[in-house]
Structure formats: structure tokens, C-alpha cells
Amino acid sequence: MKTALLLLVALAVAAGPAHALRCHVCSSSTNCERAQNCAASARYCRTRTKLEPLTGNLVEKDCAESCTPTHSLPGQVSSGAAATLCCQDDLCNRSLQSSAPARTPLPSTALGLALALSLLALIAVPSL
């Protein structure tokens, strides 16, 4: 019983608390910034920029479950140029110029995993 309880505690520490991604979520004719917590299912901060020669620029920033970066050149005068940038760090969609690299695991997650593996080794080999 103690072993099972110890194992559950170790797994809870290794999993760590869920961390919701924070992104700028807004729509404007300029580089807007409005921080917001994303839904748990969101893995990306996305920025879509569209240049419309007839109606002006449009910048849309949001949280997204999936994201595919794109860049297109103007085809017709009315279609304009469009780009989608994707990133995975908190508030990484602040800038319009670049996308940030993918998020790396948190140090506390690695520490929790190491602790859980150590406890499992102690349980499996009690003579250590």
C-alpha cells in the first residue's frame, strides 16, 4: 500500500501542474497586443497578417490548437500578401517579424521526472 501511494505521489510531482499558454489575442490594422490565457488545448500562438491594398492591413493574433506557418506573395491587387507565424512560448506572438522556437520542457518537469524514476528504482531494488 505504501509503495502504491509513493508511486502516485511521484507521478503527480513528475506531471506537474498544467500550464496554460498565454498569447496576444486581438484583431487590428496595426500590431496589436492584448495578453490572454489560452484554452488548455491550445499549443500555439498564431499571428496572421494580411496586406490589402484596397482596404488596408489586418493583423489577427490568437491561440490555436494547430498552426502552419505560411508566406504568400501578392497575386492580384485585391488579394494582397498574407503570412501566418506560429510559436509556442508565452506571449511569443508580440512581434510581427519572427516566430519564436518551440517551447522546451520546464526544468521542474525534468526534476519531477528524475525524482519519479529514482523512487521507482528504490521500489524495484529495495537493497540499494
TrEMBL record:
Protein location: Cell membrane; Membrane
Main localization of the protein described in the UniProt heading: membrane
Topology of this chain in the membrane: Lipid-anchor; GPI-anchor
Signal sequence interval, chain numbering: 1-20
Keyword Membrane attached: yes
PROSITE patterns per UniProt: LY6_UPAR (PS00983)
Keywords: Cell membrane, Glycoprotein, GPI-anchor, Lipoprotein, Membrane, Signal
GO CC terms: cell surface; plasma membrane; side of membrane
InterPro entries: CD59_antigen_CS, LY6_UPA_recep-like, Ly6D, Snake_toxin-like_sf, Toxin/TOLIP
Domain UPAR/Ly6: 21-107
GO biological process, one term: lymphocyte differentiation
Highest rank taxon of the organism: Eukaryota
PANTHER family cross-referenced by the UniProt entry: LYMPHOCYTE ANTIGEN 6D
Name of protein: UPAR/Ly6 domain-containing protein
Organism expressing this protein natively: Ursus americanus
